[in-house]
Amino acid sequence: MTLTVEGEGDDSGEDPIPPTPVDEFTYAIHGSITGNTAWETIGLTKNAEGNWEYTGSFVDGSFGIKKLDENGAQAEWIGGAADITSADQAYTFTAGADSKSSLTGTYTFIYDPAASTVMFKTYEGEITVVKSYQIRGTIVDGGTDWNDYDLTETDGVWSAELTVVPG
Q1: Fewer CB within 10 A of the terminal residue: the chain, N end or C end?
Q2: 84 with 47, same domain?
């Protein structure tokens, strides 16, 4: 094999900066810690530090993190295997059994995928409650993997236009 380089090189002595990788995944918290005993999925928002967060009301319950692909489908389940008993403390969060939290109140939930930690940070401000609904099931692909489909509200009616199959 032969490598041929033509032209003038850069003699600055500095290493080139590698491109920032594109994060093709997003994350969601999934569990009963928001008061829904049937387990619900809540999307997390990427913050300035590159962590994923959600601010809201939490109750004693179980949860895990879903890694979602570019279509919003679950790409990976990250159970966490953490037992959260105190706010404002990072807990190791790795693949494993579902996690549990005994905290009740308003917190900012922070997931740091690089450090594999979660934290419930005490929140002292007011929050605006935004309700949204999804339909969850296998009614679009008919397979065994359950997926979430967003519903849109119009005049108090939540709906989605989906091509469905038995599921």
Answers
A1: N
A2: yes
Looking at the domain assignment, is residue 102 inside a domain?
A: yes
- Is 135 in the same domain as 100? no
pTM score of the predicted model = 0.64
For position 60, what pLDDT does the model report?
94
Residue 75 vs residues 65, 66, 135, 136, 146: alpha-carbon distances, Å: 11, 7, 18, 16, 12
* Domain presence at residue 14: no
Task: For residue 84, give the 3-state DSSP assignment.
Answer: strand
**Among the listed residues 109, 40, 27, the one whose alpha carbon sits nearest the alpha carbon of residue 68:** 27
Q: Is the pLDDT of residue 72 over 70?
A: yes
Q: Of the segments 11-25, 65-79, 132-146, which one has the largest average pLDDT value?
A: 65-79
Buried b (16+ CB within 10 A) or exposed e, 19-51: eeeeeeebbbbbbbbbeeeebbbbbbeeeeeeb
Most distant pair of Cα atoms in the chain: their distance: 67
CA angle 158, 45, 17 (to 5 degrees): 140
Q: How far is CA 67 from CA 24, 46, 80, 113, 162, in A?
A: 10, 13, 12, 10, 23
